[in-house]
Amino acid sequence: MPDADTKLARAEVAALLRCSVSTVDSRIADGTLPASKLGRRVLIRRDDVASMLAARVKRSASRP
Fold this sequence. Notes:
This protein has 64 residues and is of the alpha+beta class. The protein is 52% helix and 17% strand. The chain has a three-stranded antiparallel sheet with strand order 1-3-2.
């Protein structure tokens, strides 16, 4: 199992979530998905991706 603190590039997150890189960029811009910059690279912790997904599942489950 991968380490939860593993850093992923935007393209890796997009592949994991099966969405576009621009969608990942939008989530970073609106604060839904925390990210950090290392030089020109934008990196996202695997744990933050899991937390974002869990919050979305919880929010959609609470809708009537």
